[in-house]
Amino acid sequence: MRSRSANRSGIVIRRRVTPAGDIIVTLLTPQGKLKAIARGGVRGPLSSRLNLFHHVGVQIYQTPGNDLATVQQAVLEGALPSLAQPGRYAFAHLMAEFADALFQEGEFSEQAFELFAGALRGVAHQPDPEWVALVMSYKLLALAGFVPQTARCARCGAPAPAHPDPLGGQLLCARCAALPAYPAEALDFLQGVVRRTVRESMAHPLSAEQRPALWRALERFVTAQVGSVQSWRQLVPTALSA
Ligand SMILES: [Zn+2]
């Protein structure tokens, strides 16, 4: 019988402790998303290692007939302690929930892992974690195949729309819109963030007053396009007030 043990390395994006004291973690790894259980983990050394946002190497065992793999060992490969800061934690949590919603188990994506790991590092170290989270959210969305339509009105297809689309988070033309047009910088961000490099977007942050409208557009777009993002949605207002 072939061995069902495997070693994987990834970042903890979700962590839940069951009443029985088991820890159920979801890791984002270069080989895709992985969900596993550390039985009785809350009472052992695995507890502190399997923390949210930790980069861990795990040895897992797949029991026949059981869909959750068991974590046998875990070693800490990297941590970003500054993510515990209140101004950063909410954005890191938001990025983790987002990655969990966007990427499916077993979907091989080294690029998704690299982008997400970069987003967490940015949220941990950049002076403006909110801007990192906004830029990286759009990049992660695009990688998962969700690209907002910006060349044409989302309702009638007219070219060069510039107004918010309160239902779909895309853009509307002046005739279809009820809200005033986006300021030029916000419009430029929405039109360009997917194709620009992260570095370019990071170099041109928008002012704090313009960001709530961008979060709103992101939230509407994600709600309309991506399923099962309930917990992510609840985090968006948290991010807004942070
Ligand atoms: Zn229109």
Automatic annotation (TrEMBL):
InterPro entries: ARFGAP/RecO (IPR037278), DNA_rep/recomb_RecO_N (IPR022572), NA-bd_OB-fold (IPR012340), RecO (IPR003717), RecO_C (IPR042242). Residues 6-76 form the DNA replication/recombination mediator RecO N-terminal domain. Keywords: DNA damage, DNA recombination, DNA repair. Signal peptide: none annotated. GO terms for cellular component: bacterial nucleoid. One of its GO terms (biological process) is DNA recombination. It holds the Pfam family RecO_C. Belongs to the RecO family. Involved in DNA repair and RecF pathway recombination. NCBIfam families: reco (TIGR00613). This is DNA repair protein RecO. The lineage of its organism: Bacteria, Thermotogati, Deinococcota, Deinococci, Deinococcales.
